[in-house]
Structure to design on (1236 residues):
């Protein structure tokens, strides 16, 4: 064991693993929780390094403009200013998808969105840095801004990027089966347009970075709010023209990410460039307006859907045309585009699919990865269309979903393979718990109930650059001084993977979770992990940790057996004790004694495990985006009360049932589900980044970008359905992105049930609802 | 501008710090005094991450002039656990045990807002809890487990199980 | 941006010291009470005062005096939270205590003062609307003495009021509610908390001794005009009547016809006009029912 060819791609040849867990399945409070509730834990902005300078970024007030000149001579004269950099200092472009990297740490030649960085200052303190910004004179030649991708497509005369004709960043077509024919032959075809809105993650901790470049060693040490350190590492290497081994990224604790901290931030690059120039550590922490200016939130989509059904209500085909508003730069764009394509293939069986999509540049802060990326948009459309189809066939929305739902072992037309699903169980559970069938269509005018389903990937199959290396490596060090220490570079962004990793390691090692130490989030100390995205960590780190722990056991078991004077296969380990399964009372020895014996006779013990996802093929265009080792599922029911005089939608209750396989930490799963519902509801009802026609950002604050408050939360009844994914390391899979998928369409379906109006655009503001009610009355 | 020496009473400790009138309380607490448990999420009074207690009542550290806080008793998150043993306040423990903590960034402010409520109200209703926390934005938890943590603490306190 | 402009900080110990400072520093100074509006405006560089006069510690400007039969006096530096939780005020002026409780967040209510909320003179402010409906007077102090103004005359426009150089607001005087009267407050916002109101409104109804006919009515709207808008049509429509469903509808239409809303980031003018009607119908009805019970 241990060589790549022996373990790579073979993870799914699992043994029939025990399902009687001791550590997995425990609702353990966060291991770092005590440090969090006492304020002891340190986030990036809490760190101070000796001689540290403070950086600030000057941002463009224009959405589209040529930079004619930048004069920072006055800023340099200000006492306490160390240096100023501009686009001239960062000529090398970066981007999370390497082959279409077109972003710069600071704008080069031109700004393409409001708030794009044009210069950065390092100074003795923040106040001085901010004063220095006021002394920088930038001369702009303001260009016309385009803020609607449909308009952008027609404006080849006004290219946001010279190399992007018609402002198309990427486009793609996928055809599976014979969608046109299937639609023609369908008994019922629904056609509808939808718009999903422009929202931001709104994590509470703004991005922050501290770069410490040591001129003596040529080493750069970056501390940053970085959800995917590996890709930032690569891009820093490129932009700084430093080999990766000269760069170390340490990620202190992260105050929420939701995808937004997946891309490297301008603070990462600017602090690094400044630090190299001035020979001091430089810290740059964003203000809230900068969080909005650098966005990377969900792509707004203008979607045209056709959905065909046979006479029994079975889906025959889906035709999906998607124009995605990408904002100013490439970012994750291509990935998100093809996720929207793949997301139509599950959780329902769709035999014929046509997708045509364009990701289009506009003069707005760039869109990127946002919890449930690529899924939320088409799900919003399709789950409403299913309700409409159900009405046509005289079925209940529950029935039509059950009829079309995929089951374990399903291979979609795109070759996306579902090793395990309890989606139908999720549907059954929510319908039963909420009394849906008794209420739907039967509530008084103004009150409604709506059902929706959803799913999400639990990892990806490919890296963003060509590579065959494992996606996660975990090393477990066993010694007398520390017990068990797990090294793994996975990034806890608040979801709790540090604790989950400890639980999984403890499970296989047979010790208590609380006795496992996890060393994560440092590219130099922890072992490799690809990053926190695509809900990949439980599955990926789980396999790597289990492999490593099994190797540890393979070393310790014989020692324990000889200490207990029994055969190796008679031995088990649990709760920190090795024992004979036949004579537990008589023959047992503490795990730590076995470790001592092992080390005294054999020397140090360190084992490494790895995970590489299966390299599935079959997705036509877009780098096989959509394949995942497995998938998580969620069904939700929303109950709403619509104020008929003001149009305000009050969500009273959400009933949720999720299939996350075996929950590793049920309390954490519940937290993920609740948080997803809150975010989904926010997008459905309140949140929207508002951009003026000239590209100015109207509401870059939490004052006017409206997040759900404690007063807005509905009652939530969330259940984890009994499930065990045998392809997963401990039977567990994602729970952090699947549950956001159904929330918005469930609310929209409920509003339809309440007032009989179909809405196709998010957010569902009171104004839209009231206008519809008035229009209805007028009829 | 010339700095002047002021005295701030934070968590029953007196700190002498040099400030200008422009210095904002949250910045002084974090940078000058080094108590980084108080967080800054928006700087505009919207998110509540910078909440501290001033004379027992929750206020926004990002909208407060430090110079105006002389002679007042300030409590930050570092002052909630037992000052000698460091043992968690049962309310903190309840947050932990109920999964009311995810990324932890809103947590200090959330706990201080809650603490002011439970200190002044023996038996807050769910509605009172919700109203109290409307100015503390949490993006991870969906709030419900936070309500449960507070309710559980209040119940345990009423039953004499904890202080 | 985070950094405030440079200013001198003054913390007068008495009201007269404060008035001296306000007089001598003139328009270059700003008065700081709770700071929840002022500091944000300074952070956003909307204003750059050269001096700050912090009156938040002046006990002379704080406190609620609310005795049976004698109306109430509320010091300008009384916090919104003190008003929200005042049992005495709630008994007589529940529209005010309710409005106070809907202002901003709990932290903001602990910090903000009623004087600040009125002097900031935002069209969307919560307390001026019920204060006006309740017939409150603003007491303005200067070195020369005091003067009183009805609430609705104090606020003159978006962030404009009648304060003259050298003056501060020192207190609010609320008349004793008439017998058989009730006042109700309501607002429309996107969320259930932390809202800048798209529209707010207060309706104060007094009944004749018969307990059914409307003797007097005052309907005040906020956020639909640069200043609190006292309906001129409503009294003519409702005085002397017994409230009927038809009159309720007409009251809504009357309020709508008077509102002069604008479109901004929070709501369109059309929507504001629509919900003015809804609020007026609800509050007129609620206040009438409550007055009957009074």
């Amino acid at each position: 064991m241990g060589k790549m060819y022996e373990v790579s791609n073979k993870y799914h040849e699992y043994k029939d693993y025990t399902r009687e867990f001791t550590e997995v399945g425990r609702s353990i409070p966060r291991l770092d929780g005590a440090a969090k509730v006492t304020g002891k834990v340190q986030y990036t902005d809490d760190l101070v390094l000796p001689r540290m300078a403070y950086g600030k970024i000057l941002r463009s007030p224009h959405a589209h403009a040529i930079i004619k000149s930048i004069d920072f001579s006055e800023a340099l004269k200000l006492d306490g200013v160390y240096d100023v950099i501009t686009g001239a200092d960062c000529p090398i472009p970066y981007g999370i998808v390497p082959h279409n990297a077109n972003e710069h740490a600071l704008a080069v030649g031109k700004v393409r969105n409001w708030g794009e960085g044009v210069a950065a200052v390092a100074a003795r303190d923040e106040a001085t840095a901010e004063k220095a910004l006021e002394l920088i004179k930038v001369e702009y030649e303001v260009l016309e801004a385009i803020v609607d991708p449909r308009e952008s497509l027609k404006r080849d005369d006004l290219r946001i990027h010279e190399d992007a004709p018609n402002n198309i960043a990427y486009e793609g077509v996928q055809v599976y089966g014979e969608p046109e024919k299937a639609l023609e032959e369908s008994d019922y075809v629904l056609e509808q347009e939808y718009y999903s809105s422009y929202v931001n993650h709104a994590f509470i901790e703004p991005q922050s970075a501290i770069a410490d470049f040591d001129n003596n060693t040529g080493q750069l040490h970056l501390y940053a709010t970085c959800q995917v350190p590996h890709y930032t590492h690569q891009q820093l290497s490129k932009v700084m023209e430093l080999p990766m081994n000269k760069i170390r990224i340490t990620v202190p604790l992260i105050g929420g990410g939701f995808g937004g901290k997946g891309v490297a931030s301008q603070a990462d690059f600017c602090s690094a460039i400044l630090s190299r120039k001035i020979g001091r550590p430089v810290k740059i922490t964003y203000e809230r307006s900068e969080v909005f200016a650098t966005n990377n939130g969900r792509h707004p989509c203008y979607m045209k859907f056709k959905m065909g059904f046979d006479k029994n209500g079975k889906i025959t085909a889906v035709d999906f045309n998607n124009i995605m508003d990408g904002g100013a730069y490439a970012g994750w764009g291509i990935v998100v585009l093809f996720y929207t394509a793949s997301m139509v293939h599950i959780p329902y069986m769709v035999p014929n699919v046509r997708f045509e999509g364009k990701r289009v540049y506009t003069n707005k802060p760039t869109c990127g990865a946002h919890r449930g990326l690529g899924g939320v948009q088409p799900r919003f459309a399709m789950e409403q269309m299913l309700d409409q189809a159900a009405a046509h066939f005289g079925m209940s929305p529950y029935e039509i979903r059950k009829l079309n739902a995929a089951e374990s072992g399903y291979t979609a037309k795109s070759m996306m393979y579902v090793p395990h699903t309890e989606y139908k169980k999720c549907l059954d559970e929510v319908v039963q718990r909420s009394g849906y069938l008794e209420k739907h269509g039967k509530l008084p005018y103004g009150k409604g109930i709506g059902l929706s389903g959803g799913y999400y990937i639990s990892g990806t199959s490919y890296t963003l650059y060509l590579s065959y290396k494992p996606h996660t490596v975990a090393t477990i060090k066993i010694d007398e001084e520390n017990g068990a220490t797990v090294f793994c570079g996975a990034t806890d962004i608040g979801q709790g993977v540090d604790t989950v990793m400890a639980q999984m390691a403890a499970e296989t090692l047979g010790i208590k979770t609380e006795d496992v130490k996890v060393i994560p989030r440092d590219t130099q100390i922890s072992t490799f992990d690809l990053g926190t995205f695509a809900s990949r960590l439980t599955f990926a780190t789980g396999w790597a940790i289990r492999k490593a722990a099994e190797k540890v056991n393979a070393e310790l078991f014989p020692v324990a057996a000889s200490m207990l004077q029994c055969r190796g296969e008679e031995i088990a380990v649990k709760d920190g004790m090795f024992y004979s399964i036949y004579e537990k009372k008589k023959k047992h020895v503490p795990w730590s004694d076995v470790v001592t014996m092992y080390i005294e006779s054999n020397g140090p013990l360190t084992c490494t495990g790895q995970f590489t996802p299966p390299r599935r093929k079959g997705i036509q265009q877009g780098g096989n985006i959509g394949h995942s080792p497995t998938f998580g599922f969620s069904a939700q029911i929303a109950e709403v009360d619509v104020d008929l005089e003001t149009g305000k939608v009050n969500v009273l209750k959400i009933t949720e049932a999720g299939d996350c396989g075996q929950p590793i930490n049920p309390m954490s799963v519940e937290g993920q589900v609740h948080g997803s519902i809150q975010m989904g509801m926010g997008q459905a009802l309140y949140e929207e980044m508002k951009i003026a026609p000239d590209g100015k950002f109207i509401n870059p604050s939490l004052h006017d970008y409206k997040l759900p408050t404690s007063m807005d939360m509905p009652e939530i009844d969330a259940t984890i359905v009994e499930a065990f994914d045998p392809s997963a390391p401990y039977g567990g899979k994602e729970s952090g992105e699947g549950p956001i998928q159904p929330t918005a369409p469930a609310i929209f379906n409920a509003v339809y049930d309440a007032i009989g109006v179909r809405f196709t655009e998010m957010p569902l503001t009171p104004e839209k609802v009231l206008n519809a009610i008035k229009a209805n009355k007028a009829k | 501008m010339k700095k002047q020496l002021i005295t701030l009473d934070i968590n029953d400790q007196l700190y002498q710090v040099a400030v200008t009138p422009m210095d904002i309380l949250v910045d002084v607490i974090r940078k000058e005094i080094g108590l980084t448990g108080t967080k800054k999420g928006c700087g505009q009074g919207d998110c509540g991450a910078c909440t501290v207690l001033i004379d027992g009542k929750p206020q926004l550290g990002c909208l407060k002039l430090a110079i105006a806080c002389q002679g007042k008793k300030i409590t930050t998150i570092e002052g909630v656990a037992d000052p000698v043993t460091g043992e968690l306040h049962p309310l903190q423990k309840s947050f932990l045990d109920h999964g009311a903590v995810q990324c932890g960034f809103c947590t200090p402010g959330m706990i201080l807002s809650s603490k002011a409520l439970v200190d002044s109200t023996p038996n807050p209703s769910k509605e009172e809890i919700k109203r109290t926390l409307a100015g503390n934005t949490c993006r991870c938890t969906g709030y419900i487990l936070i309500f449960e943590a507070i309710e559980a603490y209040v119940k345990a306190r009423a039953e004499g199980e904890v202080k | 941006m985070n950094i405030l402009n440079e200013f001198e900080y003054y913390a007068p110990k008495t009201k007269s010291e404060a008035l001296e400072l306000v007089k001598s520093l003139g328009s270059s100074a700003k008065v700081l009470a709770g700071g929840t509006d002022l500091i944000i405006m300074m952070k956003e560089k909307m204003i750059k005062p050269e001096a700050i006069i912090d009156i938040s510690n002046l006990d002379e400007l704080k406190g609620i005096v609310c005795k049976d039969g004698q109306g109430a006096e509320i010091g300008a530096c009384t916090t919104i939270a003190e008003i929200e939780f005042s049992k005495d005020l709630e008994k007589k002026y529940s529209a005010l205590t309710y409005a106070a409780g809907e202002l901003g967040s709990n932290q903001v209510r602990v910090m903000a003062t009623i004087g600040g909320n009125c002097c900031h003179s935002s069209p969307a402010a919560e307390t001026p609307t019920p204060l006006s409906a309740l017939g409150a007077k603003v007491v303005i102090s200067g070195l020369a003495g005091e003067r009183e103004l009805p609430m609705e005359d104090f606020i003159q426009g978006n962030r404009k009021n009648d304060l003259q150089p050298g003056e501060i607001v020192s207190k609010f005087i609320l008349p004793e509610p008439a017998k058989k009267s009730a006042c109700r407050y309501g607002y429309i916002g996107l969320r259930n908390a932390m809202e800048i109101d798209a529209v707010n409104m207060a309706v104060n109804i007094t009944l004749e001794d018969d307990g059914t006919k409307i003797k007097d009515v005052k309907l005040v709207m906020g956020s639909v005009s640069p200043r609190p808008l006292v309906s001129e049509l409503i009294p003519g429509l409702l005085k002397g009547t017994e409230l009927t469903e038809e009159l309720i509808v007409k009251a809504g239409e009357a309020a709508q016809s008077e509102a002069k809303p604008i479109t901004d980031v929070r709501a369109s003018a059309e929507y504001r006009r629509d919900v003015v009607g809804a609020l007026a119908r609800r509050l007129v009805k609620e206040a009438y029912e409550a007055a009957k019970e009074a």
